[in-house]
Amino acid sequence: MLAYVIKRILYAIPVILVVNLITFLLYFKLNSPDDMARLQLGNKHVTTAAIQDWKKEHGYDKPIFYNFHASALHHLTDTLFFEKSLKMLVFDFGQSDANRNISNDLKMRMGPSLAIALPSFILGIIVNVSVALSMVLFRETWIERSMVLLCLIIMSISTLFYIIFGQFIVAKWWHWVPLSGYSPGWSQFKFVILPILIAIISSLGADARWYRAIFLEEANKEYVQLAKAKGLSSMQILLHHVLPNGALPILTGVVVLIPSLFLGSLLLESFFGIPGLGSYTMDAILQQDFAIVRVMVYLGTVLYILGLILTDLAYTYADPRIRLE
Description:
Helix content is 72%, strand content 0%.
């Protein structure tokens, strides 16, 4: 097992390097250091001297890949690629274009993001699996048809509608929770409860129908018919046979949600004023602070690859038929 984990990590290193290089090339292809200086200085008629001062202050005055003017030991290290890109491999994120320490910002904003994403992730899986199992339990009845129709309606409506509707009805009309904002500690519950509910409801339609398809496939297999012949109840078959065997493909779909636990939700955090990583990324995009955008892209890549490795390891425990060499 240890050898397999090491091998997967070694496979992941080239992928991270390639993604890092592509992001760097696209970044400087779209925006030269001079363009970034003009954007941050906020003046189309800014002087050349001011541009040069900004580039020097933020470290953008260096060559991109190779510095001919540096000493022998610094030809490759005293470059933009090393300073702005390669250092991210050891999680040295440096300063944003607005002179903020990115690592400190990530530490401060990770808590609010997890306060929304973690409950939404756990409760969402529980609710979606429960609804899917209920549809399988009452299949070919009016209950299943009604639940499928409801799921279709839910997944056909944009998440933005749920956000605006929830803020208007629950926060502004009923005054059950604040309209927006955030407070640390136990008082954060009243600020995050509505975003959590919206995240669960908006994902219910698509996820519940997908889980239902998985469970229906399992319910039609021969071992289920054998369990029925032995006299087991429908509930026992669902919980002790269909659910465990259907959990394996569900693990794959859960992987894509892992990065969102740490990177936050762009829409929810922006509309509800939650100072998490999602709103941090959105603000960086609006302000065209590409130093932050590059960091968030890199973190998303690392977390997704880590999720794939954890999924492969979970397969060995979820299905004993799988053997890793």
